Amino acid sequence: MKPIETEKIALLDRMFAKASKVVLTAHMGPDGDAVGSTTALAAYLEKKGKKVKIILPDPVPDSLAFIINGFEDRVIIGKTELETCRKAVGECDLQISLDYNGFKRTGILEDILSASNAEKLLIDHHLNPETESFSLVFSETEVSSACELLFHILMALPDVGGDSRRLPARTADALMTGMTTDTNNFANSVYPSTLQMASSLLAAGVDRDAILANLYNRYRETRLRLMGIALKDLMKITPDGVAYIVLRKDLLEEYDVREGETEGFVNMPLALDKVRMSILLKEEDDHFRVSIRSKEGVSANRCSGLYFNGGGHERAAGGRLYVPKDIATYDEAESYIEKVTHSFFE
Ligand code: 5GP
Ligand code: MN
Q1: Which of 130, 291, 306 best tests ligand 1's pocket when mutated (most atoms within 8 Å of CB)?
Q2: Which of 33, 106, 126 to mutate to test the pocket of ligand 1 (most atoms within 8 A of CB)?
Q3: Residue 343 — φ and ψ, nearest 5°?
Q4: What is the DSSP letter of 105?
Q5: Is the dihedral angle over the CA atoms 303, 306, 312, 318 positive or is it negative?
Q6: At 98, is the secondary structure helix, strand, or coil?
Q7: Nearest ligand to the C-alpha atom of residue 148
Q8: Residue 32 beta carbon below 6 angstroms from any ligand 1 atom
Q9: What is the reported pLDDT for 129?
């Protein structure tokens, strides 16, 4: 990553000093990096005497609830408590956006967050940040995660002074957790700065074994059973080397799939030599949620932008396929993927 400019750190330090009520926000369908980065910064600011609220468009998945364990009363969910979110945003003097590049990614909260009069700070690692919406922007794509960028920013602040042992324990734990999920446990997007962060946090006493146990060894049986079906019966591979899996609603219901329980499915087909890009579709109410992962030289971000109303990172992106706007019926998803990915690789 590029060195963080000292002038920007000074600006941030003043912004934090001035603020008394702070709202921290992340993207729809919050993942480990979204929950981790908001929790980490909220715990840091709370220790500095600020009143903090974490506002998320959707609930924290059960599988990530351990990150906010004991901290739940700071969290407000747009989907179920929109008016409480509106009030908190109206009262805050600093609004912080973590792990997303524009208010559109906050869905139901978009209007509230873009209209607020508070100072607006962005800390993000996605491509194409909407810098004009914010008073101060930390945007860096050459890092593993928003958690990693936040770690380096916190370390540069005068009160931390490069000593990670000065971070609150919840901050250190949450940062390690979000970095771990966004790198898929050090499988991708790992930079020298990522390992420096991991080393520093381990030295500060973070219990990585406990984090790994929480993240990867506490699934319900249905996840593994569904994974088996997805790989054995549902995965298709096109002659262009595109693997795709379409998870329909009836199956998701049969396996009682909860939010976050198909995390990681999209990565598995990339294990095959002949697969260059992997696409996972999950049926929701008027659309499919789309996840795309790709190998070196193939842009998941471009594919998502062209055909799936989304974006993200070069090799990990997401989006949506709307029914009946993009395809007439849910049954057309497979032929749509075959068609668009073929023209993508032409
Ligand atoms: P995932 O497949 O894990 O949901 O998302 C992969 C990456 O793409 C994440 O960094 C996520 O923030 C981003 N992403 C997911 N959905 C969207 C979307 O609809 N639009 C944009 N711009 N990025 C997305
Ligand atoms: Mn992220």
Answers
A1: 291
A2: 126
A3: -70, -30
A4: G
A5: negative
A6: strand
A7: 2
A8: no
A9: 97
pTM over 0.85: yes
Could you report the per-residue pLDDT of 265-292, keeping only the tens digit for each?
Answer: 999 999 999 999 999 999 999 999 999 9
Contact 292, 278 (CB under 8 A): yes
Range 31-36 average pLDDT: 98
> What type of residue sits at position 341?
T
The pLDDT value given to residue 227: 98
Residue nearest to atom 7 of ligand 1 (CA): 317
Whole-angstrom distance, CA of residue 1 vs CA of residue 185: 19
For the chain, domains (ranges, CATH) are: 6-216 (3.90.1640.10), 222-345 (3.10.310.30)
- Tokens 């600006």 belong to 11
Does residue 85 sit in helix, strand or coil?
Answer: helix
Q: Are 304 and 292 in contact (CB under 8 A)?
A: yes
Nearest CA to 135 out of 124, 121, 125, 117 is that of: 121
pLDDT digits (tens, 9 = 90+) for 175-214: 999 999 999 999 999 999 999 999 999 999 999 999 999 9
Which of 328, 288, 326 is closest to 307 using CA atoms?
326
- Average pLDDT in the 218-222 region? 95
Decide: residue 72, CB within 10 A, 0-12 exposed, 13-18 middle, 19+ buried.
Answer: exposed
Burial of 184 (0-12, 13-18, 19+ CB in 10 A): middle
82 close to 113: Cβ distance less than 8 angstroms = no
Asked whether 27 lines ligand 1 (CB < 6 A), one says: yes
DSSP string, 251-273: HHHHTTPPTTTTTTGGGGGGGST
pLDDT of residue 178: 98
- For the CA of 308, the closest atom of ligand 1 is 19
